[in-house]
Amino acid sequence: MTQPWAAGGPVPGPEPASQPVTLVEGSTFCISDQAGDIRPDFQHGLFVRDTRVLCRWQLALDGSPPHPLTVQHSDPYTATFISRSLPAAGNADSTLLVERSRYVGDGLREDITVRNASSRPASCVVSLEAGTDFADLFEVKDGRTRPVQADAHPAAGTLRLAAHRGDSHREVLIAADGQPEITAGRLRWPVTLPGRSQWTASIEVVTVQDGVALPLRHPRGQPVEYAVPARRLRAWRRRAPQVSTPDQDLALTLQRSITDLGALRIFDPGHPRRPVVAAGVPWFLAVFGRDSLLTAWMLLPWDASLAVGTLQTLAERQGSGFDPASEEEPGRILHEVRFGPAASLALGGRSNYYGTADATPLFVMLLGELHRWGGHDAEIRDLLPHADRALEWVEHYGDADGDGFVEYACKTSRGLVNQGWKDSWDGVNFADGRIAEPPIALAEVQGYTYAAYQARARLARAYGDTAAAAHWAAKAARIKRAFNDAFWLPARGWYATALDRDKRPVDALTSNIGHCLWTGIADEDKAAQVAAHLLSDDMFSGWGIRTLAASMTAYNPMSYHNGSIWPHDNAICAAGLMRYGFTGHAQRVTEAVLDATGHFGHRPPELFCGFPRTDYRAPIPYPTSCSPQAWAAAAPLLLLHTLLRLTPDLAARRVWCAPAIPRRYLPLRVGDLRLGKVRLSVDARDGEWQLTGLDGTGIKLTRSPAPPGAPGGPEDPAWGYQGALCELIIDRRRTPV
After folding, report:
1. What is the pTM of this model?
2. Given a cut of 50, is residue 55 above it in pLDDT?
3. Considering only CA atoms, which of 54, 63, 328 is closest in space to residue 190?
């Protein structure tokens, strides 16, 4: 049975001994071995819009594959594979060096260069084998690809591979310089090299679907530095946070995160200025409601365009009718968009899947947070009707039984059984290991709903609708009371992770309770116990907070959701701890996650194993973790923002700031923080800090233990900063916002 929608979990099948090389640009990615070869016996391939368009791409010199030496990366969409030919009989050394410079983006371009390092002439035959199966991404992921006979048509200097799948006709066109000899599935160049000379050929792979060819992002004959991906990435890096710190782990992690997030952005051809971030490589290179919304939230202090683009994109695809196969309902925000053949065939031609309980309230939360940061009033007003439709879904379809809580139950055999962020089949379980049965009301989803009501109330207040503001504020207060009554486990000292179909509290100790701090739904008198559990040996490994406590029956540090450590989850927990004033706890989580990231080449993986730090010198990787992965890449940015304790409310013309930076990162300077049209920087040293406008004008800074308008309770994100607050007032007369 086809199951196109992503629930994570292990991916079967062999992997090569060496680490695969992954390149990514938008909705295109390529996985190969260290020599640059795409091998059909592994889960390699060039994937364009969820379809594998190359399953074989193997280079040989005189019939033998060259020996890989190194791979050089500059940007996420490109790499140069450097190899040498095997030495001739009787020779100790090889004389031929092979370079394969690869660029991906709606297809592939590869420049092959053979260098003769000897003063003597040399000759060889360069051959490149190409093959395709047009397999759907999920077929490759699950190891269930079916043989497809792709007809090879060599003609007019181009190798054309074509096949029919269902009602779709697909082709791959492979063209090359150097007048190769082209046969079925192979390009071949006889090469003669004088001493100290080189030979180069450029090859391009163009995807054709139903007669329409996708234009390459890096066409042959054009300088790659002026291609669209290069220009976009340069512009993205210019907008990145300007960070100065003596801690190299922090500096390199932030640099890597910004680069990866830039590469994971997808641009709709119909809206080229509307970016949205894909969830992650390799299996989730598509728009995901939950992942894209949370990633955009984490980036707000530096770039609001991703939040605007994400909200607009999801609003366009917001549910409008009922479709049990895709779980679409009026007002619902989608879970995932897919374009491959298995997804569309499985869901009656639909590429959108809506089976998630959390994306819809998160949509409203992000809209409200975007308003806090200022500068997008017209877009926010246009999106308000979509927010109201989302809240209608929350109240009528999300809360199908009318008990005041949002719950889920899968409506199709091809959908997700669990529809929160822990969406594996066993992701919601009791302390004794029993699997919770749906309908399931998750703790964090109630928190998101509470925060969505709060956000909608603030938006109504800002636009002068006092009646609507009171209406939504009252709903927020009701769900908060009901949540703390139904989910709190006084004998345990933590919140239940969920209520099951019989309204029984699912009593496992999980990281979900940290999300309840982040959204502010937790009562103040319960927060200290929650914080203590999150940092206990049961939950905190030393590398981060586990998804499930080690004392729980289902605990497995090598599982996907039952004992592993997720950087984005930890970043949300740290933000929640800081919100309630547990500064030391938040700092410990931040340092632990950044320490772990240093062991992964400064690129946070989707997740890693939850073994105690005392057991091993480095964190243990999870074998099929996505990398790069959007909300993992964004997690260090949220951790940094949490340490800055910077909370804006530009509608009230105020920003609260109270940096709490661990000494190892000092002196720390963070520049290019964007609040509407105002740019700010924070300079922190041991015992002192300064907040300034980059233009030196238009701001007035006042300090006091409790400044006018300071938040008065945990319903406001800055409440936990009490006793160390400052207030920034934007001068209306000098700086437009």
Report:
1. 0.90
2. yes
3. 63
